[in-house]
Amino acid sequence: MDVGHPLLDPKRLAALATYEVMDTLPDFEQDCLTEIAAQISGYPVALISLMDEHRQWFKSNYGLTGMTECPAEVSVCSATVCANDIMYVPDLTLDDRFKDLPIVIGEPNLQSYCGMPLINNDGYVLGTLCIVDFQPHELDVSQREAIRRLAQQSMAMLEMRRNVISLQGKVKELQEAKTISDEERDKSEAYLDNIFPKLIAHELKTKGRVEPKYLDMATVVFADFVDFSQLTDGMEPARLIEQLNLNFARFDQIATENRVVTLRTVGDGYLCAAGLPENNATHAVDACLAALQMQQFVAASNKQRTILRLKPWQQRIGINTGPLVAGIVGTTRLTYDVWGTSVNTAARLEQSCEPDRINISGSTVYQIRDLFEVEPRGHIEIKNLGAIDMFYLNRILPEFSADENGCLPNDIFWQKFNEGRTAMTNSPAAK
Question: Three-class SS of residue 216?
Fold first, then answer.
């Protein structure tokens, strides 16, 4: 076959491939067309063929049993593809183009042929609808025109097939895009759930924004490390970040376990608060429990540092209870934060604290006084806020503690807490 033969045209072959039809199972609709073609013409054989560069493959085969394809170079249809119109040869043995073909002089001994190219909307010939006989056979004009119409119908079915494949491809692309979109949405939602309280994350996801909220009572916790700059002087950056991450990751875990919301870190400073984003009755207790457990974690870490002859990380914690405003700030980088005098007071309490101690205000002590051991410090002046009552938080009272260090509450602790709440609710002042 010559290199320039239409069957070898790369564009035609690419067009044929888009139908994904070669070597597929028979189609009932195409089989109906070949049966009709044979009945109209009186020919014993009718074929719908698709042709690639090597072969003529029979999509529908009526009457030619035992064959599914034949080589393209010995096919009469190869000439039909070149003709681009119906080709009618009543006697192949008398036609110089075909009389010496193996399928004419040998099995299956074809003698009569009529075929119409299957031409797609882009003008490429994909194959043929043809009828053949094993003896000379005349066709009138109407019979030949019927073959033309049946070929056009066969091509219309193939076009429908390609349209379905194209739609399936688009549906698949949309499904893949949706899957990617869903995965990205899930990642975004997981990120929001990870960095914000659940209620805040839900409000962001459903409304796209969060309304600032005034809380008449919450407890704020500030923590940092004494002389942090001197402590980390000469320390490798990677090691510094590793140590800070180790501390803050454990603080986050402790905060979560005690219903405390982590807000932000600045350098060696750690800010969290209890009673957010909704008011609750346990905020002061939760904050104090978290502070004691953070202090215990740092103390345990310092024991290891001492063994390794490393400087201890001395922590200070300030706790204050009072009203504040909570909300989201930022547009591209959102932050859930708190504002108000109560927040500033907690920061000043931390600054006024001795190393490895927890400094709490009188307003916090009032909330937790029957459950924790506190140490009065007196009425102390703090910058820009005047004098306030300060106390050191030492531990949970022994009778309410589940551990010897006084960091974990026992069942009696919560019974006592609930009794205290009931008494306050029933007091004349409360009424």
Answer: strand
The reply to whether 1 falls in a domain is: no
Residues 16 and 121 in one domain: yes
Express each pLDDT in 70-126 by its tens digit: 998 889 999 998 888 999 999 999 999 999 999 999 988 999 999 999 999 999 999
Do 70 and 17 share a structural domain? yes
Assign residue 353 the CATH number of its domain: 3.30.70.1230
What CATH number has the domain bearing residue 76? 3.30.450.40
- Label the pairing between strands 386-396 and 357-361: antiparallel
Among residues 417, 371, 364, the alpha carbon closest in space to that of 391 is found at: 364
- Structural domain including 126 reads 6-168
Dihedral angle of Cα 99, 103, 104, 106, to the nearest 10 degrees: 120
Each residue of 240-249: pLDDT tens digit? 788 888 999 9
Closest to 345 in 3D by CA, of 376, 316, 328, 322: 322
pLDDT tens digits, one per residue of 27-44: 999 999 999 999 999 999
Q: Is the dihedral of CA 138, 140, 143, 144 positive or negative?
A: positive
Would you say 219 and 284 are in contact if contact means Cβ atoms under 8 Å apart?
yes
Structural domain includes residue 311 = yes
For 371-415, give the DSSP string.
TEEEEEEEEEEETTTEEEEEEEEEEE-GGGBSSTTS-SB-HHHHH
Among residues 141, 96, 94, which one has the least CA distance to residue 114? 141
From CA 170, how far away is CA 174, in angstroms rounded?
6
Would you say 355 and 396 are in contact if contact means Cβ atoms under 8 Å apart?
Answer: no
The span from the first CA to the last CA of the chain, in angstroms, equals: 105
Give tens-digit pLDDT for 129-145: 999 999 999 999 999 99
Do 22 and 79 sit in the same domain of this protein? yes
Residues 153 and 254 in one domain: no
